[in-house]
Design a protein that fits this description.
alpha/beta
């Protein structure tokens, strides 16, 4: 006859607690069983279907793939999460050019084109070069701008030029919201899209330490990074073997120059920008004058591009002025999805960018 145990709230029950080690061991054995099984997808598919389709998580979430090769990441994205339309985010740098070519070559039916963000605080030559290169490669290119287009100017006049601590704030205004608007432009894209990026763990000391998964989502907005575990050497080898080019701006700046918000400005970058894009530097210098004349008291503390150092207190003020509490919690996660090493020299790198 089974012994019944009457549970009382807040009281430990010796009979149940004595079984805890055994229960843990059984779970551990089962975990090893399905992790080593060739039928992994079949064993886990019910769980993934619940996570992906039935529950609608609010906020940011990552999905870990059993096998992190590019092919298996894409298999997971399509077969488990049901993503069928791939739009590849492209700055013009080596990582994004390589991933565009890989997706276009291996998933031609799902490849819907290239999405480039004209931040309006970037090097014009990069956008112009990408337009010509996509035409040459027969890649459909869609360019989007932040809304409003001068959002960077507004932020600078209100809060000053951003330092490293404020990069997440600028990134969200310039890139993330623009990507979200693009993904949700029509119902079909909203329900089936995946924004494919070339970000990689080995370009970022933060990614290497905090890596969660190559497939990520924020509610109905989906991202995937098939090359997440590839090295610089692997990417350059892929570029060479396939005869691909990157923006010539990279040879001067060490990055694509798509976004020159100044959060991670490197030594000599200002002088290089004067040579590459005199109009851009004219605009930056104009903004520096406007901050002195019309900026808020906070803005006047950071009146010079590329030299700001924001204190934690200032970051908190800016965050609370722009976002609600729920948005603040996920912004740092989104930075790792949206911005790669091409965003700024030294942004999230753990290695040298050649």
């Amino acid at each position: 006859m089974k012994k019944e145990v009457k549970l009382e709230l807040g009281k430990k029950h010796d009979l149940i607690m004595s079984q805890a080690p055994q229960i843990k061991q059984l779970n551990s054995n089962f975990s090893r069983l399905y992790n080593n099984s060739k039928e992994y997808d079949l064993l886990r598919i019910r769980e993934r279907e619940i996570e992906t389709n039935r529950l609608k998580p609010q906020g940011f979430r990552s999905y870990i793939c059993p096998d992190e090769s590019p092919e298996e990441i894409m298999k997971e994205l399509m077969n488990i999460h049901g993503r069928t339309q791939f739009y590849v985010l492209c700055s013009g740098g080596k990582d994004s050019i390589s991933i565009v070519n890989w997706i276009a070559t291996n998933y031609p039916e799902n490849f819907k084109g290239v999405m480039h963000i004209k931040t309006n605080i970037g090097v014009k030559k990069t956008t112009d070069w990408l337009v010509e290169y996509c035409e040459k490669m027969n890649w459909k290119l869609q360019i989007r701008e932040p809304n409003p287009p001068n959002v960077y100017d507004e932020l600078v006049l209100k809060y000053g030029f951003p330092g490293a601590g404020a990069h997440t704030i600028v990134m969200r205004k310039l890139k993330y919201i623009t990507m979200r608007n693009f993904a949700f432009e029509n119902e079909e894209r909203k329900e089936n899209h995946a924004l494919i990026s070339g970000i990689r763990a080995f370009e970022s000391s933060r990614r290497m330490a905090n890596y969660k998964g190559a497939i990520q989502r924020d509610s109905k907005l989906w991202f995937a990074a098939p090359f997440f575990k590839k090295t610089d050497e692997w990417v350059y080898d892929y570029l060479l073997k396939n005869g691909l080019k990157r923006t010539p701006v990279h040879d001067v700046l060490g990055m694509s120059g798509e976004c020159e918000c100044g959060s991670f400005a490197g030594y000599g970058e200002r002088e290089k920008l004067k040579l590459l894009d005199p109009q851009l530097m004219d605009h930056i210098e104009y903004l520096e004058d406007q901050v002195q004349l019309h900026g808020t008291e906070l803005a006047k503390k950071h009146p010079t591009w590329g030299r700001a150092t924001n204190s934690p207190e200032e970051i908190e003020i800016i965050m609370k002025g722009l976002y609600d509490d729920g948005t603040i919690d996920k912004i740092k996660d989104l930075e790792e999805v949206v911005c790669g090493v091409e965003c700024g020299f030294g942004t999230m790198k753990g290695t040298v960018n050649y």
